[in-house]
Amino acid sequence: MGQFVTRDLAGAGMRLALVGSRLRPLKALGTELRLAEDRWMALAADLRKAAQAEEAVASVADRFGKVDILVHLVGGYHGGEPVIKTRDAEVTAMLSQHVWTTLNMVRAVVPRMTAGGWGRIVAVSSPLASAPTKNVAPYAIGKAGQEALLGTLAREVAGTGTTVNLVLVKTIDVDHQRDAEPSPKTASWTTPEEISATIRHLLSDDAAVINGAKIPLFGNA
């Protein structure tokens, strides 16, 4: 997803800061997409730690003068066991990955956005957060926490010019199997291009009235 979103936002003329736990793949992505050197930067940070999130955001603001968009793309899954067999470490990992990274980043960026009178925050989540199936407890807990956090934030920033929204995805169809091999299984899958296009719209001025939404990108399945 990072690759598709980066390409789309660069094509829309945005200046980009790519932040992740490892610097090398971020730099490789910028090189692969041939991003203009003066319009992007890459930073390695452990966003589970508040100080590193704040430092990353401050570095972006120093480079570009402001930070007015946060697209929070967080992977990571733990599951496969019933609740009574769920291990503490798996729940902790999902809370760290999905809740703490989100909380640390919004605490760093939102004051800058509201001070400037304009901001956009978008994250990708899953319908499992509100409608979990069996054996997904750690992941569902993490995503539910993230959704509650961002839903609360959306209410708090309403009227400031900043919006906070979620895009819900079941399966990311990187290989476009839904169209190549249509079936009940693939009917709810979503291509990276579709997800990126939705994110791009939510970041636009045309989407200023959309705040606190959870947009389902999984068809009717």
Keywords, separated by commas or semicolons:
221 residues, 7 helices, Rossmann fold, four-stranded parallel β-sheet, alpha/beta, 14% strand
What's the CATH first level? Alpha Beta
Total helical elements: 7
Q: CATH fold name, please? A: Rossmann fold
Largest sheet, strands/sense/barrel: 4 strands, parallel
Rounded to an integer in angstroms, the radius of gyration calculated over CA atoms is 17 Å
Percentage of β-strand residues: 5-15%
What is the mean predicted local confidence, pLDDT?
A: 96
In spatial order, strands of the major sheet run 3-4-5-6
Q: Structural class of the secondary elements?
A: alpha/beta
The domain count comes to: 1
Short description:
With 221 residues, this protein is of the alpha/beta class. Helices cover 45% and strands 14% of the residues. The mean pLDDT is 96.
Question: What can you see in these coordinates?
Answer:
- With 221 residues, the chain is α/β, with parallel strands linked by helices.
- The protein has one domain (2-216): NAD(P)-binding Rossmann-like Domain (Rossmann fold), CATH 3.40.50.
- The chain has helices spanning 2-11, 23-32, 50-64, 88-116, 137-157, 177-180, 192-202; strands at residues 16-20, 40-44, 69-72, 119-125, 162-168, 214-216.
- It has a four-stranded parallel sheet with strand order 3-4-5-6, sandwiched between helices. A two-stranded parallel sheet has the order 1-2.
- The longest helix has 29 residues, at 88-116.
- The radius of gyration is 17 Å and the shape is globular.
- The two termini are 22 Å apart.
